[in-house]
Amino acid sequence: MMTGPAWSQKLRDEISKAVIGQDAVVERMLVALLANGHVLLEGMPGLAKTLLIKSLGTALGVQFERVQFTPDLLPSDVVGTMIFQPKNGEFTAHRGPIFANLVLADEINRAPAKVQSALLEGMQERQVTIGGKTHPLPRPFFVMATQNPIEQEGTYPLPEAQTDRFLFKLIVDYPSAAEESSMMQRWGQMTQQPSLAAVSSGEELLGLRADVDKIHLSPAVQGYILALVRGTRALADREAPGKRYLNFGASPRASLALYQAGRALAWLRGQDYLSPSLVQELAPDVLRHRIGLTYEAEAEEVTPDKIVAQVIERTPVPAAT
Questions:
Q1: Is the dihedral of CA 6, 9, 15, 17 positive or negative?
Q2: Which string of DSSP letters, residue by residue, matches 136-188?
Q3: Do residues 155 and 302 share a domain?
Q4: How many Cα atoms sit within 13 Å of 109 on the Cβ side?
Q5: Model pTM score
Q6: Is residue 276 part of a domain?
Q7: What backbone torsions phi and psi does residue 24 show, to the nearest 5 degrees?
Q8: Which residue segment(s) compose the domain that 42 sits in?
Q9: What is the pLDDT of residues 227-274, one digit of tens each?
Q10: How far apart are the first and last CA of the chain?
Q11: Could you give the number of structural domains in the chain?
Q12: Which of 206, 273, 274, 284 has a C-alpha 20 to 30 A away from that of 77?
């Protein structure tokens, strides 16, 4: 029987052949796979976001497709279109790159809203419509998107309705000095990237979700999750005293995300129950893209992570059960 730590370690070991560091980000991506959720990665150029996702797809042994989002991209370039066949005079569906297990939407904020919305049905319903006919997507199915936080010209910020569909928004930071030094030593004179092997499979991943569902979640911890999410909404209450830093709080999807991702993280770390500490650890990744800062908050350089930290600090932690 495969345990969480063993499954995590074999994937980490394989990914580390191509990507140095980013251990926390890799763990969150594995949590998203187990929780059947999509991931948005945000970071500066050159931090190996694309390489990381591609390496994950290879190590997982699933079909991988990359879509480079550009201003001239069309929805049919993502989901597919109807093609006329002269031999029989009929139209047949040509499936786009979204028909893969792991789809990389690279620089998702560089394509207009019409293309971004082409992903919505697939991300939420695990199906797409081509020529009026619905086509189910493969199982498992994940969208992992990247975006650059500093680019403003020629970009189209994701609307709240779309960002809410991502389980996590992960911030990819610069590597440490030791990690960057290891990169120089490993790849400074290499002419090609190291080859990775498949150490898992989509079928294994689907099977492991049954183990994740067995993780115990007490009523007290469930109440703690609700208190955290509803705490963000209290900060957006227009009638609440004091300065208002949020235009809106997290949606019910945030509660479900903390519930599902929390059990997946507990299983990955070899625990049989979800503790409040794991909920606190996941809260920034689940909530930072689901709350809307007011103008006053932005002017005072208040970040979503500071708001989440404030909510965690104010919310009573339940006793161990």
A1: negative
A2: EPPSS-EEEEEE-TT--TT--PPPHHHHTTEEEEEEEPPPPHHHHHHHHHHHS
A3: no
A4: 20
A5: 0.89
A6: yes
A7: -65, -40
A8: 4-188
A9: 999 999 988 876 666 678 888 889 999 999 999 999 999 999 999 999
A10: 27
A11: 2
A12: 206
